[in-house]
């Protein structure tokens, strides 16, 4: 598709979403300072609860989100959050779900009922997010997920309080398929994570490769345990002698899978989906295996984010500088948490209320440029970053470098 056609499609799509959003805003009714959250001294707060994978298999992603949440909360609290006639402070209540769905569900219940949070965020793994969703829906508290899976926000009738920020699997798969085709590769294997994230990748990449006449020669699932031996899966996927292997998973599994591929003698090209982007993937143990690998990820991963002078670009630059100052290096996955807080704050400002129902309504109408990328939420669409926010990156000397 020509670049002008892509731009026209994107503008048209956003226009339709904007029209749907305007309709819902008009239906939101009067200015309401109602608050289904805390009363008394805490009534001047906007309280956001987070269930994160600070330990367990998801820690490579969860720790990044905790850092980003704290950085962004500190930034927003420098001037406070204007909600109607009140200037509120933003308060975080963070829990470690240890990468366990059962514990994530327990956190969601406690945060919604005992802490009376106005919104929930978190769930870096699809399984922890899926455990939070029914609680958030039942308690009617908005939940913004950081996980990547197609079934987080659908069916929409049963997910009215649920939103997600990560790119849709089909958009990542189409970008990967186009990249693979452009390199003249004809036979590809797929190593997919166990669970909902891997399921989404299998479906999306199968369709995307078929559309560009690339043969998906074998699909193999990765082990569920972090300390498992990944070499049997690597040997199986490379049995038909593919020219490339796509690893569809999250850190730390992505880097481990790449290392296993090289250990079994595979010399072809390696491609990752966006879930691979974390410090662990580029660790010393994985460095040789991932050198030259490709990933499709939101453009926030690239250094060009530092030269953008739009409002979103300046916010992005400030966030990256603060992150590096505190933690020494920047991870492209971190901005999702920052965007989630900014989306909640924008919803409170627009709705002039911290009432959970109004927050949900105004979250569902935001068309905005975030730090990670662009979002177009509407009553008919609660998830997925805009596809034009995605870029292609490759590992050069242990760092991600933008290709396109």
TrEMBL record:
InterPro entries: BCAA_transport, Leu-bd, Peripla_BP_I
Protein name as catalogued: Branched-chain amino acid ABC transporter
Species of origin: Plantactinospora endophytica
Limits of the Leucine-binding protein domain: 47-378
Pfam families cross-referenced by the UniProt entry: Peripla_BP_6
Domain of life of the organism encoding this protein: Bacteria
Keyword Kinase listed: no
Key words of the record: Signal
Family according to the record: Belongs to the leucine-binding protein family.
Signal peptide positions (record): none
